[in-house]
Amino acid sequence: MIDEEKHPSSDERETRSINDAGSNNPTTKSDEEKRLVRKLDRRILPITCLLYLFAYLDRTNLGNARLQGLTEENLGGDPTGTLYDWVNSAFFFSYILFQVPATITSKLFPPSYWIACAAIGWGICSTLMATTFNFGSLIAARVCLGIFEAGFGPAIPLYFSFFYTRTEMGLRMAYWFGFAAVAGAFGGLIAFGVQQVGYGPYIVGVGGEWDWKVLFLIEGIPALLLGVLTFFALPDRPENTRYLNAREREIAMERMNRGTSADIGAVINKEHIMIALLDWRIYTGGMIYFGVNCALASISAFLPTIIATFGYTNALAQLLTVPPYAVAAIVLCMTSYTSDRMQNRGLAVACACAVGAIGYLLLLTVPNNVHVRYFAVFCITSGTYTAIGLIIAWFAHNLGSETKKATGIPMFMAIGQCGSILGSHIYPSTDGPRYISGFAISCGLEAFATVCALVLWVSYIYDNAKRDREYGRPEPGANVDTSKLADKAPMFRYIA
After folding, report:
1. Does residue 202 sit in helix, strand or coil?
2. Which candidate among 41, 231, 337, 465 keeps its CA 20 to 30 Å from the CA of 373?
3. SS (H, E, C) the chain
4. Rounded CA gap, 386 and 392, in Å?
5. Can you tell me the distance from the alpha carbon of 464 to that of 348, in angstroms, rounded to the nearest whole number?
6. How many CB atoms lie under 10 A from the CB of residue 355?
7. What distance separates the 2 farthest-apart alpha carbons in the chain?
8. Residue 7 buriedness (CB in 10 A; 0-12 / 13-18 / 19+)
9. Residue 405: which of 168, 171, 160 has the closest Cα?
10. Pair 410, 100: CB distance under 8 Å
11. Helix (H, G, I), strand (E, B) or coil at 383
């Protein structure tokens, strides 16, 4: 599947590029570079997006399985919902602990090998959830699922930064993370279909006795198979991938190094690890991620249950989760495209968090109008998914070097995933059908995330202006040496 090598004219070789770390002007690309980007998109995006689709299905299908008899068979009915909360949050404990070491270590291995092994691992764990028989076995499967997914999620923004410039990154991250919303929609459809068919003896109000087991098999096996395909099909780093010919590798390397010169390749810069650990912005980003992930975990695990409290049957509640997720994917892609064009992330993140907060506020203040409450669900899904997709893209090109990205991205993600643990425990069954505590906590955290996003946005603008005054504006296309100071290099400029 290697494209034929093209020999450009001298005019085509004269590509006017910007300093990718320090200018907000649009990039002018040659036809040759545009062809390369399209070729990368054709291979990288389908594989990574499908991987995330199945990763998110396998992570969140617990919420659908809950309405199909999982708690009755494995958790003794779980009248308070406490056992289910712990099964749901078990994933996040291992996911948090393994994110930073896994992402740093991933720099030492070919991306295709690393990502393929992660996918095969979580596919096996998800499939084996169909064989669980009690609380302990569910916990074990969820913990192992978190370990393998920790090697995948944070590694993808780093992987994308090998191939895409900052003017391209936001939309690609939106496509990738948008498949989390697509997974929510597909998860609802698959669960609805399984429940309609009914597997095993019929149980009143639940469906087939084996429905939840079939659901885990349907959503787990494809991840395993896709992991095997990833091993052979996903391009490795630009300098050594066999997917590109010699000229394409040359262009890809120029794009990868455009505007920065730092630790590139299978190396780890220990100084940049310490710089990341001491960077207050990463912790502020973690606070934003904490707020939106609390909401995200709540949506993933409890949305079918919440919609069921509107007065719908369990099967219809599964189906009604589809439209909010579909709209969220569209809003995420549209906002990310606009953000890429404007090269502004902070305001977009703040607005998305504010929309999510408004959604929770509506659920709190309008208890009886089903139409308003269902509209609020759209606000929550659209705001939350958009904020998460944008903040990942925001940090992917604001950290200066590969090692700082490999440390900083999983750092703020790990902080944020603590919000997922909280989100798994704020909707006990005893709080239904209003769930006032859960909605209030999520609303407050989304509002707090809005403030943090504005603080980051102002700080980036201030730092860029200060460096412009002290060192002058960087020349378009000039190479910035970030090998020592990462994003603190005098001529480095942030995306605000």
Report:
1. strand
2. 337
3. CCCCCCCCCHHHHCCCCCCCCCCCCCCCCCHHHHHHHHHHHHHHHHHHHHHHHHHHHHHHHHHHHHCCCHHHHHCCCCCCCHHHHHHHHHHHHHHHHHHHHHHHHHCCCCHHHHHHHHHHHHHHHHHHHHHCCCHHHHHHHHHHHHHHHHCCCCHHHHHHHHHCCHHHHHHHHHHHHHHHHHHHHHHHHHHHHHHHHCCCCEECCCEECCHHHHHHHHHHHHHHHHHHHHHHHCCCCCCCCCCCCHHHHHHHHHHHCCCEECCCCCCCCHHHHHHHHCCHHHHHHHHHHHHHHHHHHHHHHHHHHHHHCCCCCHHHHHHHCHHHHHHHHHHHHHHHHHHHHHCCCHHHHHHHHHHHHHHHHHHHHCCCCHHHHHHHHHHHHHHHHHHHHHHHHHHHCCCCCHHHHHHHHHHHHHHHHHHHHHHCCCCCHHHCCCCHHHHHHHHHHHHHHHHHHHHHHHHHHHHHHHHHHHHCCCCCCCCEECCCCHHHCCCCCCCC
4. 10
5. 19
6. 21
7. 74
8. exposed
9. 160
10. yes
11. helix
Burial of 10 (0-12, 13-18, 19+ CB in 10 A): exposed
Distances (CA, A) of 82 to 87, 134, 162, 360: 9, 14, 43, 23
Alpha-carbon distances, residue 411 vs 151, 286, 318, 395, 417 (angstroms): 13, 7, 34, 11, 10
Output the CA torsion sign for 205, 208, 209, 212.
negative
Q: What residues contact residue 406 under an 8 Å CB cut-off, 6+ apart?
A: 103, 104, 106, 107, 158, 268
Q: Which two tokens stand for residue 152?
A: 């995948």
């998460």: which residue's tokens? 388
Rounded CA-CA distance 142/134 in Å is: 13
Number of alpha carbons in the 13 Å side-chain half-sphere of residue 264:
19
Walk along the chain (496 residues) in steps of 10 and give the mean pLDDT of each run.
Answer: 38 37 50 94 96 91 84 87 89 93 92 97 95 93 96 93 88 91 83 80 62 91 96 93 93 78 70 93 96 86 78 79 89 93 93 96 90 91 94 88 90 92 86 87 96 97 95 79 87 90
Q: What pLDDT sits at residue 310?
A: 79
The Cα 104–Cα 119 span in angstroms is 18
Distance CA(404)–CA(422), nearest Å, equals 28
Q: How far is CA 286 from the centre of its chain?
A: 14
Calpha distance 496→492 (Å, rounded) = 13
